[in-house]
Design goal:
This protein is an alpha/beta fold. Helices cover 32% and strands 24% of the residues. Strand 16, helix 13 and strand 17 form a beta-alpha-beta unit. Bound molecules: cytidine-5'-monophosphate (C5P). The site of cytidine-5'-monophosphate has 15 residues, from helix 12 and strand 16.
Length: 408
Amino acid sequence: MGRLYNRNVLLGVTGGIAAYKSAQLIRDLREAGATVRVVMTHGATEFITPLTLQALSGQPVHLELLDAEAEAGMGHIELARWADLVLVAPATADFLSRLAQGRADDLLTTLCLATPAPLLVAPAMNQGMWRDAATGANIELLASRGVHITGPSEGSQACGDVGPGRLQEPAEIVAAAQGLFAAGVLDGLRVTVTAGPTREALDPVRYISNHSSGKMGFAIARAAAEAGALTTLISGPVALETPESVNRIEVTSAVEMYDTALAQMGQCDIFVGCAAVADYRPAQSQLQKIKKGQETMQLELVRNPDIIAAVAAHSQRPFTVGFAAETQDVLEYARNKMQDKQLDMIVANDVARDDAGFNSDQNAATLLWADGCLEVPLTTKGELARQLVDTIAGRWRQGKGKHKGKVA
Ligand code: C5P
């Protein structure tokens, strides 16, 4: 089901009785992970209301080619570019004929001409119309141009006839759409990433924290989502935009991050702990602002829980990946940390070098696991994240199901 995850599907609905099935189709496409925007022909609005399809898609429905309001928002060329797939279901004989002629006399046909995305049509019409030589010639022409065609099915028709021309069931159309996309390496897996610093409150206005920007963790969440994973990002306070299709949960303190991470157990296949969690927190956070007075002041700190070690020790442990930021003997310290915390993989960083790390957009690292390693020379955090995701996917496939509930 994951192949439509993160995909933008532009659903064209044309004017046939089967237009009522597009309501279920929208639900199924969204269930499969797609974002759906609907374009209706005028004929389609005679069979089903735009309001129904708007409510089901959660997006405004587009009807007019020349619509000043729409052009100010998402205009027709932007819509054509936005789509990863244009799916027309039901596609009437008239629509197929106009498509075959390359017409651009309404919004949907114009989009079909303008889009660089693949085009999939699901014909639906009376069996006589489907069998007619003109329709057959149009279908052949469209297929020769690379248009994908799914269906129609055979059976009893709304008009009382029996034969080919029924719109395929929504599930079959969704399967045809999925078949047009290659599977992502983390398709359908659930990934949780921690990112950023934590803040440990001293009083209502002061805290202890660190310089983590969150960039590496956000890049990993983005790469995981792009690889098809259902991705949750548990982030400390950072000034970064949420990557597309990532579910972001904001936390402040280490204890909050711990509680949020542990609440994911049972719904998480892969956990990547990239956050720079504060090791200690003030023994007491004062309710009122601390007043200055004395020349010196003593703070009592207590250890924070180790989030990733708790995740790795959990009875429903996911495949667990940690980070080790070191300044010397990087690989040795990292391997020890992987063993101490019972991790499946660790990303070893040399934070002593000044061209990588904390606030930089670049990073270099060595990925270590029980019986192997991969050195990633200095590159962008985005590229490092993609290599990490690919490596995790490879390890996951090799040990699939084995690490569940078992310590590595
Ligand atoms: O022990 P150290 O802080 O060097 O370990 C780093 C790794 O452990 C990182 O993956 C970090 O996200 C994780 N960690 C954690 N909870 C802590 C401290 C570190 O999850 N309290």
